[in-house]
Amino acid sequence: LPATARLEGRSGDLFQVILPAAALPALAAQPGVVQVRPPAPHLPAVISEGKFAAGLFPWEASGWTGQGVRVAVIDTGFQGWQQLQAQGELGAVITRNFRADGVFEEGRHGAAVAEIVQDMAASAQLYLLAFDTEVELANAVAYARSQNVRVIVHSISWFNTGPGNGSGVIADIVRSAWQAGILWVNSAGNQAQRHYRGLFDGRGNNLHDFAAGDETNSISLQAGQQVCGYLTWDAWPTGLDDYDLYLYRGNDVVARSVNAQNGSIPPTEALCHTATGAGAYGFVINRFGGQARTLQLFVDTVDLEHRTAAGSIVQPADAVESLSVGAVFWHNAYPLESFSSRGPTSDGRLKPELAAYDGVSTRSLGYSDMLPFEQGGSGFFGTSAAAPHVAGAAAALISRYPAWSLNQIQSYITSQALDLGQPGPDQGYGHGRLFLPFEAPTSTPTPSRTPTASPTATPTAFPTATPTRTPTPTRTATPTATSTPTPTRTATPTATPTSTPVGPWLAIQPAQPLVGAHAAQPLDILWGNQTPADQLQLLAAGPVTLPGPAAILTETLAADSGRYATLLSALPAAAAGEPFTFTARTSLSEISQDGRIAGAHYLPLLWR
């Protein structure tokens, strides 16, 4: 390496190097160096509550809460994780920082993902693993394998790392986890309106027509807003077909990517630009040389004028070994989010495998106001929120059936999904929305298929750094912070695979009642293994009241298991933030939940 270069990490033939831009030619001239480029682009699918809709409360009441199961959240940052622990949102997590820049708390995205996993599987042991490049991701996964992690959730979208058929460097990392017996759960991506796919059409010149007579794919930017575009085409792993990507404002080129595809580098272009002024901008694709190819353009932060929802699945959600998750809004009738990436993969496979819930409440990203994304709703939106619901449900399933194979776990989750959209599996909802029935399966699930490994791309040996032709800013070194200490590993306790719940139980949905000052909170009380004809008693302490004049609401149980619905209302003098306690009891069991007055509107409801 040049004297000014520093090796930050390595995974196989990939080297992560940081050095001044002036030293790039010397690095590129080193024997064995095939390509010098920046780290593969990726971003969190940031735009989620689904414990009730997923049917997990009876599981929790019976003790199947992920005990003995280790789940790794691999994300770019976990801002506020210690505060979440202090607030009771996270348990005794294990942290490990694989980022060469030493930054562990970059944004709240990873912390919000971890919150949802813990909500779904309260007893699971969470690992919070921070990364920023593909080398660091590979090292994080290797560590997860060494710790006997059973589930990885990766709510991250990657671009330009493969042809969309489940091959490529990131898909190889997913495959390594699967081969080690780890269930990989990935967000499908939020790119349905930020993706274009089409065969090159020059119509007499070398500029691609996105539509008849339109050589520009327009976007709208605000001043100071950054946008990145990622172009690839079907000439993997390398080829001589050469396309370039430009971003225009009016007649001016404001950013360009003009890599020379000369048979030794992948068919990719990437650019980023921060708008100096508000207005219309446009992506232009130029064929520098070669034959017509199928082009695929992803954009990260804004919607495209000409867009293709089909095939907008991101990487590594396209991998065969990835259980990929689209997003449905938790409220109303579970509509598929307009931004949720669709399949198929470039080789024609179904993606995503299922959908789960977004727009939900987390401490990190705020409470849901029950409004959808298009109406400016608040909460954790995006497939990033959907994926951890599936990861947490998988942890609960493993704690109930610890001897099940990886194929059996994934097959059961997809086979129990509740169908949405057109009858049968489709390229938006997959097999349907996440739901785990409480009843034990009548037989051990048999996988519908054993996943066939994704095609393996020819590995390209190159260090990671800033390329000479793509105008991506050179990353500057950040002083490395003290690494987060790794706690001494303890043996994973083995859960007892009980097939039926033990003892009588009660559950309250939602788990944390939030009563609006002017809006009642619907509550569901569920029970099991109770005595028929016993009395279910409901009472509230604090500035809330139940229907009717009696202080204690009584209902006769018609069967040993069932559900009872009621309403909890705030007293006229109740103030936002005041606490209260709601209690349900029978002669055999009792459960209490603490809640608060939420203000003008109640926040999380429940899902029926």
Describe the fold and architecture.
With 608 residues, this protein is an alpha/beta fold. It has 4 domains: 1-36 and 463-481, no CATH class; 48-192 and 311-415, 3-Layer(aba) Sandwich (Rossmann fold); 195-299, Jelly Rolls; 505-599, Immunoglobulins (Immunoglobulin-like). Helices cover 13% and strands 28% of the residues. The protein has 8 helices and 29 strands. The chain has helices spanning 24-28, 57-61, 81-86, 109-120, 134-146, 169-179, 383-400, 406-415; strands at 6-11, 14-18, 42-44, 70-75, 94-97, 125-130, 151-154, 156-158, 183-187, 195-199, 217-221, 226-233, 242-249, 252-257, 268-274, 279-289, 294-299, 322-329, 354-358, 462-464, 505-509, 514-516, 521-528, 535-541, 544-545, 552-556, 562-570, 579-585, 590-599. The strands form 7 sheets. The protein has a 7-stranded parallel β-sheet with strand order 5-6-4-7-9-18-19, sandwiched between helices. β13 and β14 (252-257) form a beta hairpin. α4 packs parallel to α7 and α5 packs parallel to α6 (169-179). The longest helix has 18 residues, at 383-400. The chain starts with 5 loop residues before the first strand and ends in a 9-residue tail after the last strand. 49% of the residues are buried.
